[in-house]
Amino acid sequence: MKVPAFVIFLWPGLLAVVGVSAQAKQVELEALPVEARGEIHFHADGAILRGVGGAQEVFLYLDIPEEEMVCISMEGRSGKWMQIHAHLFFLDQKGNELLSMTSSLEIPCTGMQSGEVFRRGVVRLRAPMQPNVSGFRVTLQDRNAIRQGLIYKIQESHKRGIAQGELESMVMLGSQGIAGPLFLWGVDQRGPVCEQSGFLIGPSDSLREMIDPNPGRIYGIFKPTLTAYIEAYGDCDRDVTARLRVRSMSDGELFYEHESPLQLRWARSGIVKHLDISKLAAGTYELEIELRGGPAFTALEDAGGGEQGLGRLSGTFQVLWDANLWNRSEPDRLQEAALLLGDKQWCQYRQLSKGQQGAFLESLWVCVEKQEGVAGEELRALFMERVAVADARFQCGRRGSFTDRGRVYVRFGAPSEIHKELSPKEEDLLYFFLQREIDDAEITRGGGPPKRHPLDHSAYEVWHYIHQGEPLLRDWVIGSQGRSLRFIFVDEMGNGDYRLIHSNLLTDFE
Q1: What's the pLDDT tens digit per position in 398-415?
Q2: Residue 49: which of 227, 275, 209, 242 has the closest Cα?
Q3: How high is the pLDDT of residue 117?
Q4: d(CA 236, CA 449)
């Protein structure tokens, strides 16, 4: 399935350049690609490439999720448009800001077509490389969408996303070297290019115009072919040997290795390679590309450089075969895991890459299918339906499914009965209610009753389930068979965020 893309070039002359002093705050730069934090969940990827005359330039690619943007009509223009404010910072090795560039973009909205799962457009940022730059920070603001919350509305603060990452340096020895890799959705083959041993080779300036970047580096169910791009610099008409390897990041297993001779006809050559990844399982992989040969690399090897003397580039990519995970943001992925896993498992899950998370969740639902005797897809659809309901009903400064009521709803479904006390008085105060409702067995098992003051006027809700309700997984009600479940929630702060203070569930509710 081809992902439609729009491309906006930001040439250096169109960027407003603002010098900034180095900040005292230091941050660790992430390896590319990076996923934005905030309300706009774009991916960012890029490389330092060599221009005419040897000058280095930064090429950044951002994929903008159109479904998360507000599209408006603009006077004198047909169709709908996104209006984005882009702010690019160059960072030093410690994450301090060295230089910033800003620009306002107006991008046409193409709209979702029938049968499309998602639609992303690619924005290209191009700027001259600056001294001492090691990384970047990109902030995108949706000028048509105000962030949620009263303060944001008063301040007219727009919805935004922030991504920052480390730029990989070129591998150079004198005037010869290689740069990249860039991961692509594909390439529009035209112009002065040729095919050699399964590689597509041409002058870098021409190939840069043909590439369709894939900033998230995600392949699999909608794109079973990976396309990689590198550039090689040096003398014209020279012979080299290209070697590619693909390894699993989980255990280092080698899945693919290929070596071919190439003739590079240009001083700045672009090299494209297509790889079939249809047989790879979901997970995270490393693509390694080496170029050997040419006087520079030969001299390095002769000097004792050995394996370190090879012109070598590498980058990770993700393989996903689950359509539900393909275009979901990190908060969404973490949410699904948080609602299904215990605290320890969830902390381990957070450390995984997107592909590894996908593989984990796929295996989790397979295990669920075996344990529950119900089709995993059916249970997952019910899970997602409950999440959507919880998000809509219980939102209170955070996603509804992350609240205590939301989590109970997702796990056990709608309660059979809800008892509400919005302004309790006298015998309905929570202190007296708990004395009546919680029996001695529950107090013994729980280590004591919830402590409340006799004059506590907090609003509260009691959810009653006939038997165990409709638990998504049987593990959640082990030992509670024959017992009608009850959950007591209290609005401690008076802000509508009801916290669970007690349940008669015999298993831990994490």
Answers
A1: 788 889 999 899 988 999
A2: 209
A3: 60
A4: 81
